[in-house]
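Quick one: Accessory protein NosL from Leptospira kanakyensis, structure tokens please.
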Amino acid sequence: MWFKSFKLICISLTVALVGCGDVRPEPLNVGEVKCSHCSMSIVDMRFHTQLITYKGKRYHFDAIECMDQFQKQKDLKIKNIWVTNYLNKSEFIPKDEAIIIHSDKIRSPMGAGLAAFKTHEDSSPFQN
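--- reply ---
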């Protein structure tokens, strides 16, 4: 009897510890998901942004400005926010580490001209 209880405890602990791992952004295919704020299909992956709450709910956005508006409207306990590197659409950057600029040279899906870069040097050609 004690062996079955021990086995159940071990399985429970394993499941709990697996859930505590590092949360990473998930890649999407073009048009696979709609923006959690404006409901547009996410098609320009240079602007794809992800937000995950402490409860594990993941939200996808087609632009940084959609994510900003969504945050203002919702009372969420946010665990992570990732933005896509404008110059490498397969690379996510934690929002607090990204260089986010506003530029007339950038045409974002919602028209605000916001884009994220990994370094200041990468963003300089797009500065107004």
